[in-house]
Structures are given as C-alpha cells and as structure tokens.
Amino acid sequence: MRWMWIDRIVELQPRERLVAVKHVSLAEEHLHDHFPQRGDRPAFPVMPMSLIVEGMAQSAGILVGHAEEFREKVILAKVGKAEMSREATPGCTLRYTATITHLDSVGASTKGLIELIEPSPTGGGTPEPVGAIDLMFSHLDNNMGGQKFPEWNFVFSESFRTLLRSSGITT
Known about the structure:
Shape: globular
Largest sheet: 6 strands, antiparallel
Distance between the termini: 18 Å
Structural class: alpha+beta
CATH superfamily: Hotdog Thioesterase
CATH architecture: Roll
Number of strands: 6
Order of helices and strands: EEHEEEEH
Strand order of the largest sheet: 1-2-4-5-6-3
Number of helices: 2
Oligomer: single chain
Radius of gyration: 17 Å
C-alpha cells in the first residue's frame, strides 16, 4: 500500500487491542483541497473523513493480521458505522484505538475509537473522543467463493513491515 494513514503504533495487546497515532500536517497535499480559499472565505484545511476511516481500517487491520502472525491476507469487508463529531486540522494528532470484538478463521469484527489531541504550547494535550468506527474484515484466502489468490501476502506490504519495525513490533 502506498498511502499510510497512521504514523506509529503506540500500544499492542495481541488479539485484543491496538493504539496508533496519526499526526496531521499541513504538508500533506490532500489538506489543500479540503477546503481551499474561495472569495472572501479563508482556507479551512481538514483531513477528509474517508482518510480517517482508512487510518482506522489500517490500525484495526494490523491488529487482525497480527492475531495470526500476518499469515492471512486481511481485507476490509464492511464499514458498519462511521461517526465523527469534529474535524481534524493541521497540528492535531489523531489517536486510533481498535479493539477486536470477534475473530475466527473467516475474519474479524472490530470497534474503533478516534480521539483528537489538540496542539498545546506545553506539549501533550488531552485526548477528546471525536469518532467511532465499526469495521469487519475478511481473511481473503478463506473466502466463501473458493477463489485463489497469490501466495505472497500483498496486503501487508513492506510499508506495513516498516511501520511495525519502527514501532518496535517484531513479525
């Protein structure tokens, strides 16, 4: 996968929970399209909700993949719920907490909490819950149609392995 929507994994409880963070930066090109200056209205750069959903999907997908030591090709099968109460703007940090609610040989269900941490002159900041996302994943090789896919795990690419290594997680 070319685009990573999480920067670091900060906590992993195998088969249970994963916490990841994404630092929203004005250097990210997509922010300039959402929303540019128009007439007298100043620019209002925000991270699109679709990319926040993808960040949660990547976080939860890593948790689900890690449960079987990345032997399965884990793909997003369904977004059951996606709610956000506030925009993520440059300088903020998104914290994704993914929890497995069901896991079997066919796939997994997860619940996700999104928290926003505003920049603070003293550093840190208090996380504010701003969203919830429920996701379902399928283990691609255990699909009901019996379709065959390449042996190599094209879902968990070198980008994901680099993220795991830089977060101190061995595979």
